[in-house]
Amino acid sequence: MADHPRALWVLAFVAFIESSVFPIPPDVLMIPMILARPNRAWLVAAVAMIASVVGGLLGYAIGALAYEQIGQPILESLGKTDAMGEFSTRFNDFGFWAVLTAGITPFPYKVITIMSGWTGMPLATFIITSILARGLRFFLVAGLLLKFGSPIREFIEKRLGLMTILFVVLLFGGFYAVRYF
């Protein structure tokens, strides 16, 4: 499917549903598409990013709508409304970082999209951070494939997620060190 005339549409569909419900990341299609037609690497990354962010809005809506209709009454019956309110406030205090981290690491982005809607994260913060995170992820993959071609594929598929997590941990560690030492 990577070199099929409708491959971009399939990629857009996979990136869209992966951001809210589907377990398979768009990289599965994106990598072979870029290797098959390197001259379209930036287009492929852009389609994946846009579709992923729009799909993230669906996840946000699921969180926002399902919580009010289903989650809140259950929590009220259990006497947990205050605890969830506190969690919501804490999540939104770190919301930018949560969306950014989930958007660029192997952590399921759909979890954060749904939680962002559930906690009422400001929509503008969610959209801007999603564009930044998904753009970084997909354009990094496209750039690596353009520069190194097929030999970098195994690194991307097996180690890029780990390297990204390590980078985020070091980044947070650096912020923590500067703030508290």
Walk me through what this model shows:
It is a single chain. The protein has one domain. It has 9 helices and no strands. The mean pLDDT is 81. 81% of the residues lie in helices and 0% in strands. It has 181 residues and is mostly helical. The chain starts with 6 loop residues before the first helix and ends with a helix.
Task: Write a concise keyword list for the protein shown above.
181 residues, mainly alpha
The gyration radius over C-alpha positions equals 18 Å
What percentage of amino acids are in beta strands? under 5%
Helicity range: over 70%
Which secondary-structure class do the elements indicate?
A: mainly alpha
What's the quaternary structure here?
A: single chain
Shape: globular
Number of structurally distinct domains: 1
Report the average pLDDT across residues: 81
Counting DSSP E segments of at least 2 residues, the number of strands comes to 0
List the uncertain runs: none
Q: Report on the biggest sheet.
A: none
Number of H- or I-type helical stretches: 9
* Element-by-element helix/strand order: HHHHHHHHH
Terminal Cα span: 52 Å
Blueprint (SSEs and pairs):
Elements (H helix, E strand, L loop, with lengths): L6 H12 L8 H10 L4 H38 L2 H13 L1 H10 L4 H11 L3 H26 L4 H6 L1 H21 L1
Pfam family, one: VTT_dom
Protein name: SNARE associated Golgi protein
Keywords: Membrane, Transmembrane, Transmembrane helix
